[in-house]
Amino acid sequence: MEVLVEKLVPTGLGLARSPEGAVFVPGGLPGERVRGRPVRRKGAWFLEEVEVLSPSPLRYPHPLPPSADLPLVYEAQLPLKEGFVRESLERIARLEAPLEPIRPSPRALAYRAAAQYALHPLGGLAYRRPESHELQRLDQDPLLIEPLQEAFRLLSTWPLAAEEVALRGSLHEGKALLGLIGGDPKALKRAARALVREGLEGVVWAEPHPRGRFRGRVIPLAGRTELLEDFGGVLASVSVQSFAQVNPLAAGALFQEAQALAGEGERALELYAGSGVLSLFLSRGFREVVAVEISKDAVSRGQRDKARLGAENLRFHRGDAREAARFGAFDLVAVDPPRAGLSREVLEYLVSIRPGRILYIACDPATWARDVGRLSQEGYRLLFVRPYDFFPFTHHVEVLSLLER
Ligand SMILES: C[S@@+](CC[C@H](N)C(=O)[O-])C[C@H]1O[C@@H](n2cnc3c(N)ncnc32)[C@H](O)[C@@H]1O
User: Fold this and answer.
1) Which residue's CA is minimally distant from atom 12 of ligand 1?
2) Which atom of ligand 1 is nearest to the CA of 244?
3) Is residue 241 in a domain?
4) Among 49, 192, 211, 369, which one is most buried in terms of CB atoms within 10 A?
5) Domain interval for residue 222
6) pTM of the entire predicted model
């Protein structure tokens, strides 16, 4: 089938029309004629084995990793991402709020401070296609920050008897940590020590787990387990084991603007707080801040960051955001949930305590729009929305927003 890609939809797929109806085109850019094999999945048509017949003049001309699903010159990515947020708001929340201009990533390349790869059995790092066992060997990843580019080169020369690697770097320290997932930790110890001698700052081993990386046992093998990173002027810890923002420069700018929007008050709550970097910002303007996070590693890093920075008025609670009701009422609640958005319980909690302001940071515009739509039915007004580009060369877009009742 041959079609013309008309636009990109918020999931990053190209959209084209055919005599059979709408067709989604992975990797197709607006204005491109493409050819591929139509496949019907979940009631929609998708093109597979896509061949671009007439490339867009805006197509990025240099190599990118397979995970980069928006291969456009940087300036052309930004209006598309802004459009994804506006479209989600209008179509899902049925709201027309003024959108602040998207804030570009301070770096279009070399911005990723965290990444995961499969290890190729013949050595080197590889990309595993979603829902497939097929491995594609990679010889570089220009999206990685410099210390991770070095780690990438080092790992390309060492065959390692593990299944996957997770990398975390720090721009502030100029260093990199490695997580080896799978294999035998005893057998990997010598390699881990050698990798530290070659320049990595630390190596941990993690047991593969069906529910995701770092859900099982984690054993430090050599060197350090944490680094310090600068997020908008706040020095906070990062590790391979638990969430920290992938693009520290872009996230730092978002946290600064979030703090300005949050202003001052008595009590603030952050749900889905990670190691509490945003809470550290909020602790400057609120008498008391409570940070709720489910990951043990993130909470223990947060506790140490809090002690090092002297944020006496910040309190961590390790637990599920659904338990928030036990902490009472707050002037401001900040949420930064995973892609699934807020759970029903968290929405019910917000509606019941009715904080004056809700600061909502989102990594998925569709679930954010769903939640914002629900909150607007409960009397909240969407006062501020700004898309942020945390992930150049991918369709992903972050949203900073403020609701007020
Ligand atoms: C998008 S991250 C945001 C972290 C933090 N705000 C930051 O910027 O570093 C989402 C966080 O929510 C946590 N999380 C996921 N489900 C949770 C739940 N049900 N209750 C509490 N935390 C949860 C994850 O462990 C992760 O740290």
Assistant:
1) 272
2) 9
3) no
4) 369
5) 114-229
6) 0.95
Report d(CA 344, CA 349) in Å as an integer. Answer: 9
Number of domains in the chain: 3
360 has binding-site annotation:
no
For residue range 314-329, what is the model confidence (pLDDT) as tens digits? 999 999 999 988 898 9
Q: Are both 362 and 274 inside the same structural domain?
A: yes
- For residue 151, the surrounding DSSP H or E stretch is helix 146-156
Pick the closest to residue 396 from 88, 98, 95, 168 (CA basis): 88
Residue 70 in any domain: the answer is no
Element (H, E) at 403: strand 398-404
Q: How far apart are CA 330 and CA 327, in angstroms?
A: 9
Q: Is residue 68 part of a domain?
A: no
83 and 123 both lie in a single domain? no
Is 272 annotated to bind a ligand? Reply is yes
ipTM beyond cut 0.95: yes
| pLDDT tens digits, 236-249 | 999 999 999 999 99
Count Cβ atoms within 10 A of the Cβ of residue 75 and give its class: 0-12 exposed, 13-18 middle, 19 or more buried. Answer: exposed
User: Ligand 1, atom 1: nearest CA belongs to which residue?
Assistant: 338
Q: Residues 33, 89: one domain?
A: no
